Amino acid sequence: MEAILRKVEKGYNYSFCIREDIGPYIYKYWHFHPEAEITLVRKGVGVRLIGDNVEPFKDGDLVLLGGNIPHLWRSAPEYFQGNKDLHIEAVVVQFMEDFWGNVFMELPEMSGVKDLLKLAKRGIKVIGKTKERMTIMMEDMLRTRNIRRVTLLLEMIQLIAASGEYQLLSSVGFVGGSNEEYLYNINKIYDYTLEHFQEEIDIPKLASIINISPSSFCRYYKMRTMKTYWQFLLEVRIGYACKLLIENKMNISQICLSCGFNNLSNFNRRFKSITGLTPSHYLKEHK
């Protein structure tokens, strides 16, 4: 359970790391690393936490993260129930932002790349035609060796910067933290929440997990994440509700209960506060 500063292995004969992850689920802890990271989700659904942003992820999502921003990916609950028909696939590229060398990064032609990597400290979700082109380039990079790997990476970053087809994820003011106490405690809170969000959750239980008093918990959490715990829990539950609505295998009342709500009118109101739509309207838009 202990959160870590993650060490990224790139191999002795490469300047950065690219890998293909295939497994039954994603279960990453709240962590950070100095390397920037591009993640393409080929297959899989779940929840993604980047800084103070909480969103569901799905097939085809593509995200660029700057170095040292805390983040977490976790598959949806059904991936942990032994269903052999479910699995995840992802392609991940990790690189130091200055691996090209300081002199190269100071070239005037690199200004757009430098600006984008600064924005990536908040997390960037790539969308539109840019995402489609980058998906092909990520797959190509898996099979490429030598200098072409480096030029492909540079082309991908430049493509994002030039297109403007992206969404910033975490808020400007998010600072987070990289000290051991912060990461350890926040990781325990997130892990418990993502495992139990479909159930009733109370503050005394959460406080006991990180050994503080219930009266201190809400202030402790908000000071470190810039949002209330209840807002975080709501975003997790509504994100899972969106996934269930898109799958269209359950009615809205069943989805309400499956996401930890025990009152349909409250579920409808909370859902609209996050998505701008009622559950029924959201369902119609995604049919």
Briefly summarize what is shown.
The chain is 44% helix and 17% strand. With 287 residues, the protein is an alpha+beta fold.
What do these coordinates show?
This protein is of the alpha+beta class and 287 residues long. Helix 6 packs across helix 7 (214-225). Strand 3 and strand 4 (53-57) form a beta hairpin. The chain is built from eleven helices and nine strands. The strands form two sheets. It has a six-stranded antiparallel beta sheet, covered by helices on one side. The protein has helices at residues 102-105, 111-119, 128-143, 147-163, 180-196, 203-209, 214-225, 229-247, 252-258, 264-275, 279-285; strands at 17-23, 36-43, 46-50, 53-57, 62-65, 71-75, 88-95, 124-126, 166-168. It folds into two domains: 17-168, Jelly Rolls (Sandwich); 197-285, Arc Repressor Mutant, subunit A. The model is unreliable at 1-9 (pLDDT under 50). Helices cover 44% and strands 17% of the residues.
Blueprint (SSEs and pairs):
Blueprint: E1 17-23, E2 36-43, E3 46-50, E4 53-57, E5 62-65, E6 71-75, E7 88-95, H1 102-105, H2 111-119, E8 124-126, H3 128-143, H4 147-163, E9 166-168, H5 180-196, H6 203-209, H7 214-225, H8 229-247, H9 252-258, H10 264-275, H11 279-285
Antiparallel strand pairs: 1-7, 2-5, 2-7, 3-4, 3-6, 5-8, 8-9
